[in-house]
Every structure is written in C-alpha cells, then in structure tokens.
Amino acid sequence: MAKPDPKNSNVLAEPVMHHLSGYFRWLNIPADSYPAEGMDYFELDEQHRITRIVGFF
User: Fold this and answer.
1) What share of the chain is helix, strand, coil (3-state, %, to 5)?
2) Neighbouring C-beta atoms of residue 53, cutoff 10 Å
C-alpha cells in the first residue's frame, strides 16, 4: 500500500479535545484509488506536544 500523499489529505472538522487528548476526522483521496475516510486519536504532553497518535481507517 502506498503512503498517503499529504496534498490529497483533508481534515474534515476541527479536532475535538478533552484535557490532553483528542481526535480529528480526515479524508484521503489518492490519485489511483478510492477515497478513504478515517480518524486519528492523539495524546499531548504538558507542553501540548503530540506523544501518541493512532489512526483508524
């Protein structure tokens, strides 16, 4: 499977935050395949840097 092209990826809505974690929905439209919608869950440290991110397709 090819890596997603950032030029073809769109965030569908503002991230939803709760304390130091959250999620956002995205859509990737590859040139040679079908669109894929997914969601990324993330956790932040006290300086609001990403410490964990998990993607769901």
Assistant:
1) 5, 55, 40
2) 11
